[in-house]
Structures are given as C-alpha cells and as structure tokens.
Amino acid sequence: MHIRLINPNTTPAMTERMGACATRVAAPGTRIRAVQPADGPVSIEGHFDEALAAVGVLDEIRRGEEEGRNGGAGVDAYVIACFGDPGLLAARELTAAPVIGIAEAAFHLATLISTRFSVVTTLGRTVVIAEHLLRAYGFEHHCRKVRAAEIPVLDLEEDADGAFACIAAECRRARDEDGAGAIVLGCGGMADLVDRLRAETGIPVVEGVGAAVKLAEALHGLGLGTSKHGDLAFPRAKAYAGRFSYFGA
C-alpha cells in the first residue's frame, strides 16, 4: 500500500519528522511518502494560513493522481497532516482514494478508548478552529476542553524541550482538571511526542498522524474509497483562470 502524507506547511524538518512517525506505525508493506507544497506558510496558525495551505494540499493530491496515471506508483490513500484538516473535502473531490485528515482521525480513535477527551493544541487562536472541527465532525459532546500550550508551531522544531514542557503541563491539567480519559494532540508536529506524553500522564494520548495512517490502511484493506456519488464527485470540467488554469479541463 502507498500512502502519500501531505504536510500542508512548507517546513521540511516537520515533513521529515511526521513521515518518520507515520512509517514507524505503518504496517509491513505500507510505503509512506511524505511531501509538502512548494508554496505556502512555514507554519499553520490561523484561518488565513489554512486558506493558503489548502491550495498546496490540492496541488499535492493532483500530483499524486497524475503520477499514478503516468505509470508511477499509484497512491492508495492520502493523509492531510495538519490538525486544521485544511482543504479536506475539496481534496476528497479530486480522488477516489481515501483522504484522511489527522484531526478527524484522532477524534474518531479517542472516542473508541474513552468516553471523554481533551485536546491540547499550540496557540490560543487555534482553539476556535479545533472547536469548529469538533462541532462539524459531531464530536463536540465527547470533548471536555480544547487547551492551548501557547507555543508557536515552529517552537516544536526550534525549542523542543521548552515546547514539550508546556505541552506536558497542559496534558496533566487536562487529565486532572477536565477529567479527560484521553488526550488528543492538536498539531501534527507533536506526533513524535506521543510516547513521552503517555508516560508523563499515564492515560492514552492520541496523535493524528498515526491515527490517520492506521485508518487509511483499514479503509484500503476493506476496499473502501471516497464516494463519487453526490458532493464528493469529481469536480465538474470547466476552465480556471490565471494561476489556477492547470486545474481546468
């Protein structure tokens, strides 16, 4: 199986780290290819960043589909490795393969192992984005609280020890103050912290990159792909102007 893991930001170190985390949990025979757009924000920390990053996600889906049509290794599933799930539904229109967002994947798995969970994310401004996703995906009543460690995303790369201390403190508060049975990590860049945080808190900690990989493998194994009936059908053929002309018929 071939999974194309898309980091929607443009920081190579984060792409490499998430790819390594995905490979670590993948089943034997699953190949992970971690990619990122050529253009876009170096980190995604708000609605504006997500809007720009969504175009890059769609470009990477298009490239994956074209590679398969041109005799390259076909992509069996895609993972969008940003907790805002930028461009998720639009990406699903472009392919019949499963497309998994890491936030939706993490929420699903958290409900299978606990009756209530809390989310620990990076900045306070992204709390609202996570709350919107919880509501849209139908998980709002499972979530006790969305907490922010108040660290910029790039601190996960540039101040790893300080970032971990802040995240661990919020995870402990989620356990002790929220009564959460599990914690969902609200940033793909936290993927490599999951084992340390489980040891630190003593409760299940779910990170979305691994969750999305395992759900992608499950869907592929069951022969399930994105429905092409209804709103997720392939986009209607039409012309696109200017810089988006390459999306046109």
TrEMBL record:
Pfam families: Asp_Glu_race (PF01177). It catalyses: D-5-benzylhydantoin = L-5-benzylhydantoin; a D-5-monosubstituted hydantoin = a L-5-monosubstituted hydantoin; D-5-isobutylhydantoin = L-5-isobutylhydantoin. Belongs to the HyuE racemase family. PANTHER family: PROTEIN DCG1. This is Hydantoin racemase. GO terms for molecular function: amino-acid racemase activity; hydantoin racemase activity. It is an enzyme of class 5 (isomerase). It comes from Pseudothauera nasutitermitis. Its EC number is 5.1.99.5. It comes from the Bacteria. InterPro entries: Asp/Glu/hydantoin_racemase, Hydantoin_racemase-like, Iso_Racemase_Enz_sf.
